[in-house]
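Our working data are protein records whose layout never changes between entries. The record below serves as our worked example for the rest of this section:
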Amino acid sequence: MSVQDVSRKYAVTLRGKGGVPIVFAHGLGCDQTMWKDVAPAFEASSQVILFDLIGFGNSDHSCFSYERYQSLADYADDCIELIEHVCSEPVIFVGHSVSAMIGVLAAGKRPDLFRQLVLIGPSPCYVNDGAYQGGFNAADIEGLIEAMRSNYLGWTKGIAPLIMGNPERPELTAVLEESFCRTDPDVAQHFAALTFWSDNRNDLASVTTPALVIQCSDDVIAPQSAGRYVATQMPNAQFVELKVTGHCPHVSHPAEVIEEIRCYAGLPIPLS
C-alpha cells in the first residue's frame, strides 16, 4: 500500500515543519478535529500527524467490517500501518481514552516505531475486578451498550455531559455531542463494546516504551485508580494528575495538556 493510499484510508492530515513526529489519536465517537486546540501548538517544532480511526470521521468507511475489527489489537495494527508508511522515524504517540490503550498495544508489537507514549485518560480494564477498580460493574457496561443500541441519540445527550465533565461550559458538551452524532451508531456501538469489555492489564508490563500517563482529578470514565495502575504496571511510565475535571482535558483544558506534553517530550516553546 502506498503512502497516498494509507493517507486516504485514515484521512491523514500532515502539518508542521519537521522534527520529531507526533501522532494524535482520538477516542470513542470522535475524530481528529478533537485535537484542534492542542495539535497546532507543536507545529513549529514537530511534524504533526492527525488521523481518523477506521469507521470514524473521514476515514475510508469501506475498510470497516465487523469481522476485521474484533479487538483493540486490530486498531493497533492500523496504527502500525499508518506510522510505517507516513513517518520516517519513531514517533511520540498521543492517545486519548481508548486510543491510549491502542497505542500501548501497538508499541508492544512494534517498539521500534515509538519514541514515547502520552496516554490521556487511559484504562486497561473498565470493569471492577477484586482490588482493581476500573470504575464500572459488568451491569453498568451492559446497560451502557444497551442504551446505545436502543436509543443512540438519547444516549449521546445523556453521556456527553458526563464525559466532558464541565457543566459550567455547555459549549464543550455540545462539541462532543455533535461528534457522537456524526458517527455511525452501529460502528459506535461495536467500538464501544470492544472498548468497555477490553482487558489489557496483562499487556502493560511488556511495553518498555517511555510513557506519560495524564489523568484528570475527577473523571467518571477513567478513574485515577485506572490511570495509576497503568503507570505502575508499565516499566518506564510516570503519572501526572491535572487538577481539572472530565475525561477530555485536550478539549476542556488544552493549555495544561500542551504543557505536560511539551515538558515530557522536551520540545521547545515556540517563539511568539
